[in-house]
Amino acid sequence: MSWLRFKKNQILGVAVLFLAFSLQAQTDTAVNQKHCLWKITAPKNTVYFLGSIHLLKKENYPLPPAFDRAFAEAEAVVLELNPDSLSPARLQPLMLTKGMYAGGKTLQSSLTPETYKMAEERLREMGMGIALFNSFEPWLVALTIAVAKLQQLGLDPNLGVDKYFFEKAKQAGKEIRSFETVEYQLDRIDGLSPKNQEAFLLQTLKDWDLMAQELDALMLAWSQGDTQTLEAKLFESFEEFPEIYAKLIAERNRNWLPQIEKFLQQERDYLIVVGAGHLVGKDSLLQLLQAKGHQPQQL
Fold first, then answer.
1. Whose CB among 13, 162, 242, 256 lies 3.0–4.6 Å from 147's, allowing a Cys bridge?
2. Is residue 24 included in any domain, yes or no?
3. Is residue 28, in this structure, part of any structural domain at all?
4. Predicted confidence (pLDDT) per residue in 252-284, tens digit
């Protein structure tokens, strides 16, 4: 079926399930250049924290040398999830099982007429009819539209920072760990209430025309390690949707904290690569660790 072929082409976009911070990387331009990179020096080891960009362009490489230096010192790399779990053969059945309605319910019957009409218009602009998605839940429609737009802007999940260090770690024979499984990540977003699923879709539709502009602003903030601007840009749209923020950011950070505290007690160095949104803001991993008495240092 045609929609199955479409999903197979888009399926790797699950890497941006939780706000793909699709920014453009730049190389070091000054001795004191700050990055979205931190370290915590513990009595026995050092743990690095790298704010990941889940999609990039070929011209964004090479990444800043500071990233590679952190990788070189680390003996283990920790990611949000293992990129190998995103293969279409494994991911497609999960997406269809979790993201499709059953029992006669449809996208049109679940949305307000205004949201449905806007979705219909956006999908038409992408060359697709909304009938193709009438069995999809709103979160899956939102994700599909977001991934399509980002790819339209030339961004590729196969070129993301996560994937880059995953492949680099495999080649170097370093230990690779992950905080979550793809099943868990899908359950987080699939578990949103119907109201918040529609809000997620509506926000995606409204941001369509601003996405390119916002990416440029985020790129500059990320490349300069400007955490205040990153926080403002990334979390502005969450203010009206606390449930989405809790499920996609705050709760996950708290879940990861005990594992990170164990890493800080080891005698080996770690590089933790997670979405940039997990490292800025009041509920960030770095704030949680600071509250525990650790002292993150931005590099």
1. 13
2. no
3. no
4. 999 999 999 999 999 999 999 999 999 999 999
